[in-house]
Amino acid sequence: EKTSSVPALIDTIPLGSSSHAIIILVSTASSQYTKCEVYEKENAKWSKKWTFDSVVGRKGMNVNKREGDMTTPMGIYDFLFQFGSAPNPGVKMEYRQTSPGDLWTSSPNNEDEYNTWIHYDGQDPASRFYSYENLYTTSLYKYAAALDYNYGNGKVIGKGSAIFMHISPYTGKGTSGCIGLPEGDLLKVLKWMDPDKKPRIVIGTEQYLRSLK
Fold this sequence. Notes:
Layout: H1 6-9, E1 20-26, E2 33-42, E3 45-55, E4 61-62, E5 72-73, E6 75-84, E7 95-97, E8 102-105, E9 116-119, E10 132-134, E11 144-147, E12 164-167, E13 179-181, H2 183-192, E14 200-205, H3 206-211
């Protein structure tokens, strides 16, 4: 197995005041199979806690993510909150337990609704929303964390939505654009993440990581 380049690069990645870092490293931008390396900074020194197998979009990663392109956006992102259909497993961050009718919309025809969590009590969400993720019935969202990607006031319709870190697809294949980890590994990371440590996630190839300043 190739030696990871992350330990040599971690000090050059612009992580600001974060002292919890999750690095999703892929050998080539087109690969869906990745490594998730988890780092913690103590006494001004980064140390690696864990390495897990992980997956990204079925068509790899992209610095110019677009809605529906099956790629995961490269970059450095904060987390919004954690969520899941299961009860709070004992995490430190804000955790939202989903319920029937909880959706994450990707409908491009409504700027206010695009890339947001919405509760819908109607019987057929497809009649109301052009595109959406069912946060309650999707088994991979038993536990998850929402990335601060294309979210909020600066969002751009069509740049991509619903980018989460969630349970890996049971098929062993990549995701539709999210980051997937085996359930046990994901839970370990979710419980470890501390809002006081300002956790951030870095997604990219080694070349991309080297380009960050």
